Amino acid sequence: MTTTTAEPRTANLKGKQRPGDRWFSGTALAAGSMILVTLAAVAIFLIVQSLPALFATNEDASILPTNFWDYVWPLVFGTVWAAALALVMAVPLSLGVALFISHYAPRRLSQALGYVVDLLAAVPSVVFGLWGIGVLAPAVQPIYTWFVDNVGWFPLFNGPVSSTGRTIFTAAMVLAVMVTPIITAICREIFLQTPVLHEEAALALGATRWEMVRMAVLPFGRSGIVSAAMLGLGRALGETMAVAMVLSVSGGISFKLFTPDNPNTIAANIALSFPEAYGTNINVLIATGLILFVVTFAVNAVARYIVSRRKEFSGAN
Predict the structure, then answer these.
(1) What global pTM score does this model have?
(2) All domains of the chain, ordered by start, with CATH?
(3) What is the DSSP letter of 67?
(4) 10-residue block means of pLDDT along the chain (317 residues)?
(5) How far apart are CA 222 and CA 229, in angstroms?
(6) E strands, 200-297, where?
């Protein structure tokens, strides 16, 4: 009898909703749906505007060398190559800074560094571009010359060396500086959420602080580190002004880091070419934007897959 009378009461309690609950759930549903609608609208626009360019030739669009695919592949290579170089430099630095702020620095110093990191993340990209072209490129050009003269036998360091320092590697360094605050801020918050029980257990077993970080902090934050790195990669893939200002473009595909022959990126190419584009050339540039949209979407999908595989980690909550 007790069970039969309790079940209707529970059902009635679950069925009752206040007006505020209905309003909040409807607002949340509308906000979530708006994201999907916006994403679908952007995708539809890119696809529709790109169709005339996918099968176009140099007779249809003056900016095409032969056809669209011969035009876009070097841009895809330059975009991925610059972003990958930036990520290789930014991730270790970001992890080091995040670990120092969360587990090594004194409290006041960690708060100050955390504020500085958040402030760097808000600096406009054009400021980084000005710094890259005015300060970084002239400073690293002698270093490039030394590498080409002494380690030129290695394919990545082969010459001729750039006389201005405005190479793909300089652009990658600027991108690394831009994405480091983003990755650092996310990793810092993840490391601070490490269960204290794990850290104290490692220290109680005689582990040093670095061993505690390696055995407790880094495994706990592995999925978050991947998410932060992919977020930084997405920022590097879509960066426009800083790359357009720093990179001296010659076109083509080249893995050499210090030469004046540098591939361009999709975003920078659109920014530089769009003001003078007309006719089918506009569709060609929009089609390259569609390729960048697909690449960024694929990167985020891979990141979500990697993060979902790490959800089985059992933290002491």
Answers:
(1) 0.83
(2) 55-309 (1.10.3720.10)
(3) B
(4) 50 62 84 89 90 83 84 90 92 92 86 86 88 91 90 84 88 92 90 86 84 86 85 85 85 84 88 85 90 87 74 46
(5) 11
(6) none
